[in-house]
Amino acid sequence: MSDTDHLQSKLQSEIASRFASDLSTPPLRWGPWLYYGWVDEGKQYPVLCRRLASLNEEFISHKSPSAGFDFTSGKRIELKLLDHHQEAERFGGYAYEELSEVSPNHRYLAYTVYDKDNDYFKLSVRELNFGSLCNKP
């Protein structure tokens, strides 16, 4: 198919130009929170986030500030629950999430990530108020 290389390249460029630069899922309301995910331009893995539904209009997307409040715009910053890029760093460059679940009290996030070096899924539990991993899930 070497004679179609130019056409393949042109088609790939055309398709790529029609995709949104940052993809996101629609927010899903559960209790007082809106849960959703997004993928940054040029990134491979999604980021799972949440924001309070009652204060939805006061939030901006989590881009560069680490947490809390953006003093430039005067808005709150969404809470980043799970960044799969950070998980990929923990597992040698590859992070495939099979399952994730938020606890009924919205305090914990349990999720599994595939550890390719050891060929198994690892269960992790993150305390959402502080963002820290629990020692023993």
Query: Can you count the beta strands?
Result: 12
Helical content class: 10-25%
- Backbone structural class: alpha+beta
Uncertain regions spanning at least 5 consecutive residues: none
**Percentage of β-strand residues:** 35-45%
Beginning-to-end CA distance, first to last residue: 51 Å
Sheet of most strands? 5 strands, antiparallel
> What is the number of helical segments per DSSP (H or I, 4+ residues)?
2
Supply Rg: 18 Å
The mean pLDDT is 76
- Tally of individual domains: 1
Shape: flat
Order of helix and strand elements from N to C terminus: HEEEEEEEEHEEEE
Report on this model:
This protein is of the alpha+beta class and 137 residues long. The protein has one domain. The chain is built from two helices and twelve strands; from the N terminus they run H-E-E-E-E-E-E-E-E-H-E-E-E-E. Strands 1, 2, 3, 4 and 8 form a five-stranded antiparallel sheet that branches. Strands 9-10-11-12 form a four-stranded antiparallel sheet, with no helix packed on it. Strand 2 and strand 3 form a beta hairpin. The longest helix has 14 residues. The radius of gyration is 18 Å and the shape is flat. The termini are far apart.
